[in-house]
Amino acid sequence: MGRPARWGVLVLALGVTATSLVACSKNTGEHGGTAPRPKISGGISTDPADSRGPAPAVPGARRGGTIDLLQDSDYGHLDPQRTYSIREFAIEQEFARPLTSFRQDSAGRITLVGDLATTPGTDVRHDCTTWRFTLKDGLRYADGSTITAADVAYGVARSFASFESDGPHYIQQWLANSPDYNAKYHGPYDGGAAVPPGVTVSGRTLTFRFAKPHCDLPFAASMGTTVPVPKDKDTKQRYDLAPFSSGPYRIADYAKGSKLTLVRNRYWDPATDPIRHAYPDRLVVKLGLTDELQANQEIADSGDARYSISQNSVPQQLLSKVTGAVAARSTKGLTSFVQYLAINTQRVKDLTVRRAMEYAINRAGLVQVIGGPLRGTPTTTMLSPATIGYHHYDAYPAGPNGDPAKARKLLAGKHPKLVYGYENNAEGQKQATVVKAAFEKAGFRISLSPIDAATFYSSQQRRDNPWDFYLANWAADWPSGSTVLPPLFDGRGLQPQGNSDTSYLDDPAIDKQIDRIGALPFAQAAPEWGKLDQRIVTDTAAAVPAYDSNFVGVNGSKVGGVVLSKVLATPVFTDVYVKP
Length: 580
Hints:
InterPro entries: Peptide/Ni-bd (IPR030678), SBP_5 (IPR039424), SBP_5_dom (IPR000914). Helix 8 (351-360) packs antiparallel against helix 10 and helix 14 (508-518) packs antiparallel against helix 15 (522-540). A hairpin with a 6-residue loop joins strand 20 and strand 21. The chain is globular. The strands form six sheets. The protein has a six-stranded mixed beta sheet. The protein folds into two domains: 42-281 and 560-578, Periplasmic binding protein-like II (D-Maltodextrin-Binding Protein, domain 2), CATH 3.40.190; 335-550, Dipeptide-binding Protein, Domain 3 (Dipeptide-binding Protein, domain 3, Roll). It has helices at 30-33, 86-95, 149-158, 170-176, 217-220, 291-300, 324-328, 351-360, 363-369, 404-411, 426-441, 456-460, 485-489, 508-518, 522-540; strands at 42-44, 66-70, 100-104, 110-114, 122-123, 130-134, 199-202, 205-209, 249-255, 259-264, 282-286, 308-310, 330-343, 376-378, 417-423, 445-451, 469-474, 543-554, 559-560, 563-564, 571-572, 577-578. By secondary structure, it is an alpha+beta fold. The protein has 15 helices and 22 strands.
């Protein structure tokens, strides 16, 4: 994804281990006058020991029991090659293992390690065009059979099939050297090869060969694309209902829209796994519970709710109850989702007008109507502080409430008429009121246009949409600017519909920088993405950064080990356990 809706510089560089902490930044009044953000450190592990299991024990944890995971809606997909949302990724960790995974320690450091693979990958030619992964010994599926490199290659192969198009396309496009990745090779069906072009298998080793450098391959390999699938277990579209387990749990029962039950894979060997613990005997996902119902159950903390975890953030009207003992069992923190005003540059062509819009925004007001600081933090950057290469800047200093005087000065007596498209739900309506008031105070004339909540994002993604600007959001697929700035601002891939670049920016100078940075070694590229972030907002004013989203969840008093993933921006369950 980039996914529509990843603190400081996240040092995830090839050849750099995750050992040094980065100092917190000085508060300069930037980011709308917010307090300084803590910066975290991390890295791609260069020590094979980091990729071995078992994962370090969680203090106080014990085996046994059942934990319920409460969720408002069902998963779109469980087929690992089709998963592409944070909740899908979170539950997938429990029954599916890719080549690499992120490990997050108690200090918040993030390290990419080998999951199925012995290391996070070897850059064979030292130019990011050839990558080699060797599988560990002792890897077993839920039936006791061996997980093979050929199965990983088959998983990658099936991701080329047209019915798998909902999943990420990075590795497929890199192998095909084309955005139209399955124009020639369509996957292992109808006579297609079981190993995709560009991949070779030799014993326990897979090698990926690309026509161009792709230094992010170790990160892309952490997604479901590289989850192994035995050819004789592949049921094509029906695989979505019962994917074959390579992780510590297997799917025992799945009633769509109602419940998903995971039980132990008795053949999973913790000695091979540096990420997961699998303390509970069972994980039961209960579907169809609203965020309000989840929060009320967790706050009451009685009966089965004591053994449950809410996966939705606490709604605004209940945040005041997350205090005292309830706060002690809450999971709070900055996520990697950035909310921003995307300006449709096809319609708002005047750069001066767009720069006036940068000054008009009332960030504090937008945050206040969603629940205040617990739910959001004003920002002036497109990259989240949880993104590699994050660079702290404020291109249009306007304070937390905007600077209407500066906006009016730029407009020089003009009163541009703009149409603001907003999500037609309670939160979207409140935010639309804030936008209208702030922009009209700055000299604009604003018409509000409701967009059905079910089609809010897909409507923005139509090139012929009728709105001048709208609130959009994005989270990186992995903590790198490479999965934020290119999808949001590279205009060369614009289509009639399905666009991630909902600002419809088509600027050859920006595209040239995207290509330049994309070809750099990873350690060099990271700070360059931060510089490009500032250049895009400063030079094009195609988007107005608004706020970073925060998560506030609550779990029952009998649950321990709940962690908010800084990569996935949602609670994950690799450390959870039932308290006595």
